[in-house]
Structure formats: structure tokens, C-alpha cells
Amino acid sequence: MNHTREVEVVVIGAGQAGLAAAHHLRRTGFEPERDFVVLDHSPGPGGAWQFRWPSLTYGKVHGMHALPGMELTGADPARPSAEVIGEYFAAYEETFDLRVRRPVDVRAVREGTGGRLLVETSDGAWSARALINATGTWDRPFWPRYPGQETFRGRQLHTARYAGPEEFAGQRVVVVGGGASGTQHLLELAPYAAATTWVTRRPPVFREGPFDENAGRAAVALVEKRVRRGLPPKSVVSVTGLPLNDAIRAGLESGVLDRLPMFDRITEEGVEWADGRRVAADVILWATGFRPVIDHLAPLRLREAGGGIRVEGTRAVADPRVHLVGYGPSASTIGANRAGRAAVRDIRRLLAEQEPVAA
Q1: Tens digit of pLDDT for each residue in 145-154?
Q2: Of 164, 159, 199, nearest to 281 (Cα)?
């Protein structure tokens, strides 16, 4: 399609944050397709959850918070989370008639005409007075670089391509990363692999006891402080620590979660430290996290010198028409819900201020 369609708001992404924002737009009087449109590049409902490995069952998911206005009830904890949450998101989209357009790839957002934003996509262009960016991080896995990486004769993969433990049967696996994915991979791999080795840049921090509301607010505040300074956001998990549950305790006691400091180089046969220690490996599994998917916003020049987008609440400081939900402090499921509501509230105020005054 070559013509440009006009709406008040474009929502990019239909994961937790995007659907929450679309719900609040709908609830406050915006009509889908007429006043706003939701664009999603994924093949089906479910956001990043639809790409999670089958062995990540719903019962293993930490802190999945329901979308606003519709609870997720009666889910079988033994079913893959990709199936459970994919079906839930699909039902949510249908229940609230959000009319998500997919698959649509957003290529660039740039300055349009008349104070509008121009959103260029694989399905043509959209002109909008405001934008809610809810693109998450799944499509931008972070791969650290280490000397000798290109010489390794074994297999290297990222969490984004992890399909389950069975394919590692009889292999020596080095898992890199101290987050939730790294520990989950290790605990799953141990019964199948010939050997596992866990390496992290910093000693992992395990959290005992309940994670109450005050602790959650304190963790979010630390992440929020970074984005207010225009620094790339860290995950909320990076400041909360890992929950010390029964599975983690068993892994610590068995030695599966016996962590080593980060190696200094990769060799043809494995990894090596400066002191001469070596570990042979068939596979290096990088559980090293993800980075925000925001390159399509580059034409708007929102990035600060520190590398991130400076955000107040959900609003990009450099352009009040742009809101980022699921970014930085709102990158948790409950945070995404709150951010969606806050973004819509601010956008309604912005659009009202832009309305021409009658003579």
C-alpha cells in the first residue's frame, strides 16, 4: 500500500505492554483502526512468550501478571508457557476487539508533516499524533565478544534459540550468564549433558524470603534512575537478585550451580582463563540477556550520549509524542500494565492540548 493512513496513536508491539496500552486506549474512548492501530511483527499472538522453549512450562514462569481487565485462570502449570500465554493473549485481543495487525514490520519512525509522526512499515505508512513503542527486547539478543570466539569448533547459541535440554545429551556445555535463564538452562541441562560449567561476570545474588511490594518499588526505582539519566536500562531482575527456591537450592547443593568467574578467552576446544585453567566444551550457551528493540526510532534522534533514551515515566524527554512501555522500569509484566495506563493518560492530555480552540 502506497498511501499514508492517519490515526491518532500507533502502538508498535502486541506483547504485554502493547496490549495493556491498547486496552487503555480502547477503554478511554479510542476506536481501533479509526483512532489507533496496533502493529505487531510476530506471526501470532503471545508476544515474546510464543518463542520460549517448550520445557519452560507455565508453572516455571516467575511473576506472570494478568493483563488489565481479564484474568488468566485455570492454566495447567505443566503446559508450555508459550501455549498458555499465547492462547491467553489471543483471547484477550478478541475479547477487547483490539484488531492487531500482523505480521507487520516497522522499519522506521520519523518526523512527518503537520507535527505528526510518520511510521513506515512493511504494510505501508501510518501518520500519527502520538506513538506507543512496546517492542520489548526478544528480537535483540546480546552476544558478548571474547578473544578467540570465532575459532571455537563447537556450537554457540543464545537463549533466544534454545529449544530444550534434549539436544545437548552427552555434550559438555558451558552456560554463560547469571540471570534467571542461565540458572534454568543449567538445571534442565544437568540430567542430559555430559558436563555443565557455569560462568558469570559477577557472583550471582540469590534472594531469600518474599519479594514484597516495597522491595519491588525499590528495584524499579533503581532501573528508573538509569533511564532518567539517558543510560541503557538494566533489567529489573538484575537488581532484585534470583529467588532462592527449592530448585535453586538443589542446584547449589548438587554443584550444578557452582559458578566460575568469566573466562578470558575462547579456544578451539573450549574456554580458558588467564591463570591457565581450561574447560573443554562442545557447546557454549550464551544466556546473556537482550537489549531494547529501538533502532526503528533512530530517525527521531532520541538517544542520549549515554546510549539510552531518557525517559520520564513513559515519555521520551526528547519528544513528548513518543512513549516507551516495557522499557527499563516497566519491563516486568506488572510494570508493563501500569506503564500502558500511564502512557495513555499522558497521550490523552497531549492530544487535548493540541486540539484547536474554537473561535
Answers
A1: 999 999 999 9
A2: 199
